[in-house]
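Fill in residues.
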């Protein structure tokens, strides 16, 4: 099982414990709801999860964080537990001819009852992977999703829930051309404060990463983030980041903007109160636009009485509940949790290719498949969730004058050939 698979399993487990960790649900009611439910578990396939197992995951997460949710590495790692080719063909034939539409869990039990396999020798995961590989796994069951709120709601405590969204902004002159901007923002459900919002020249995840980091630094950590099904909010990077920070990421029903009414109302307020200021005095750059917008948020929006806040301002409501705010203890965690992820095999010259660019890593990684984390500024090598090195962009001209140490593979090959010569 590779590191990416272990992380996907940990993310699934976090999804199950999140309502308990953030006290969204009462344990007894929650376990009754999950009783008998079949989940599509990464790597393992269709499984039921016992309440006791979820409680153990919850305890492990509280003690040791996201890493504790990853499956432990096999003691016999590197050994083969695969079926023989003949065994695989036989099982696939049975599946096609007799049990094609049967759930994999039941099919696995049938194989054991018929004496085709022994439970101690062939695991459910082995059969599940075999059938998935040959597209015989049938329809996927719905995985667990956090409960979606369908009724009108409002939390009475700050930082319980932040609504998130993206809106189309005004056109601004950039690099001599008029280009469209995009506003990425959060709003606190209780106080209507805007933890952070900024205009960008694209809808890419880089913008969401900056807005989320700034919001967490300025206003503390929310219990939940409530977003739509847009690509950046469904990104694997955001899901991992929220899991590691202890934040529940909840998504709305598709094509249901009314479920995020508060942030939709914020965008309307911006359109009617801030954009008219740009018509009479246009911003000359993206930087100027964001500077003026930030000033408007603090001096106008946050300081004006809000009808749904009993005449109080968002600033007043948020300040009155400072004792409920949880700030990050270690700000440095934000430098790694929002990094994008990738896997690459290091070539014999100690390089990797990423986004059509060549990078150099320490020679000790030659021949290995490594875990990379990156943003628009740097690329890092990670092992077991920790940063161990940085990948450096290759400068061909400089490298032509650098004396390199020989590859360990080249040394081994030379020694082997010398030994064969001596033997002759």
């Amino acid at each position: 099982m590779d590191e990416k698979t272990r992380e996907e399993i940990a993310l699934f487990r976090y999804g199950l414990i999140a309502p308990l960790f953030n006290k969204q649900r009462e344990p007894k009611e929650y376990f009754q709801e999950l009783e008998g439910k079949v989940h599509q578990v990464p790597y393992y396939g269709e499984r039921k999860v016992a309440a006791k197992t979820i409680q153990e995951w919850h305890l492990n997460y509280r003690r040791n964080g996201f890493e504790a949710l990853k499956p432990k590495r096999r003691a016999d790692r590197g050994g083969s537990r695969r079926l023989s080719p003949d065994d695989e063909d036989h099982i696939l034939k049975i599946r096609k001819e007799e049990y094609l539409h049967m759930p994999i869990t039941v099919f696995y039990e049938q194989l054991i009852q018929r004496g085709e396999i022994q439970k101690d020798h062939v695991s459910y995961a082995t059969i599940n992977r075999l059938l998935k590989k040959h597209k015989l796994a049938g329809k996927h069951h719905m995985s667990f999703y956090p409960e979606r709120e369908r009724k009108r709601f409002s939390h009475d405590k700050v930082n319980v829930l932040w609504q998130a969204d993206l809106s189309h902004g005004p056109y601004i002159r950039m690099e001599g051309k008029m280009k469209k901007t995009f506003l990425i923002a959060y709003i606190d459900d209780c106080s209507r404060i805007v933890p952070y919002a900024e205009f960008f020249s694209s809808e890419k995840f880089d913008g969401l990463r900056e807005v989320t980091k700034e919001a967490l630094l300025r206003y503390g950590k929310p219990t939940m983030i409530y977003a739509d099904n847009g690509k950046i909010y469904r990104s694997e990077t955001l899901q991992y980041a929220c899991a590691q920070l202890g934040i529940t990421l909840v998504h709305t029903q598709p094509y249901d903007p009314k479920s995020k009414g508060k942030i939709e109302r914020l965008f309307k307020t911006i359109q009617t109160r801030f954009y008219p200021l740009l018509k009479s005095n246009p911003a000359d750059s993206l930087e100027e636009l964001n500077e003026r917008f930030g000033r408007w948020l603090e001096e106008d929006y946050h300081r004006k009485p809000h009808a749904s806040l009993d005449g109080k301002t968002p600033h007043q409501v948020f300040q009155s509940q400072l004792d409920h705010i949880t700030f990050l203890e270690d700000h440095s965690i934000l430098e790694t949790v929002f990094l994008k992820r990738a896997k690459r095999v290091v070539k014999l010259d100690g390089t990797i290719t990423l986004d059509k660019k060549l990078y150099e890593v320490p020679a000790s990684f030659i021949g290995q498949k490594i875990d990379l984390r990156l943003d628009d500024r740097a690329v890092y090598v990670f092992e077991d969730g920790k940063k161990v090195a940085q990948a450096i962009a290759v400068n061909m001209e400089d490298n032509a004058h650098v004396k390199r140490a020989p590859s360990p593979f080249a040394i081994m090959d030379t020694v082997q050939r010398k030994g064969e010569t001596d033997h002759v």
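The longest strand covers residues 161-174.
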